[in-house]
């Protein structure tokens, strides 16, 4: 489980050790990015770097528990991102990220303790039956709506990607952006996912430690085709991450989340 403040996969690593790993990975990425190549498309693939601030990246943000809703710094436990909906108020993450603190807030574009696009209160959560009835790893996907801020909806402030179920695993490369709990800056990595099983997909990207659960897998068409979670609630090592294969259950959940009048 790529969490930090709750019982988690990354809790098995000491905080200093985890931070040292993150620094080492990002340092390596920054020094090797200029020479890395990929046989099947533009590179570098499988290289993790600190995320640039741009129109796409600010749609991704950190989830904070209620205890950190005002102070923010150091309190994020998961990652989420804005996806398109009729209400312009929807985020997607892993189910195990949303199945917890009722006071969670979402901070898009969070960086260095600051919330340049506001702090958005999570209002309504949508989790699959498979998760609610037994925390099935094949159902580790969830949505949530967030309340307006200053009379505006979140999608109108930062934009949104499209949530897309049924995309073939590995058809194209994806970029994953997430927030390790040991740092207050997001990281990103691009690579091609591969099939882990009929219901799970995996990707090789270094440095995705605790806090990166819920990170979106976004393809070149700005479609979210996965989120870190699923098998082992995201993975037991920083270098390999998993996602549920987004199929019928995910599509139905998205439909519920976008049609519910609340």
From TrEMBL:
Keyword tags: Hydrolase, Signal
UniProt EC number: 3.4.21.-
One function term, GO molecular function aspect: hydrolase activity
Pfam families noted in UniProt: Trypsin_2
Class of this enzyme: hydrolase
Leader peptide range in chain numbering: 1-38
UniProt-recorded name of the protein: Trypsin-like serine peptidase
Organism name: Streptomyces hokutonensis
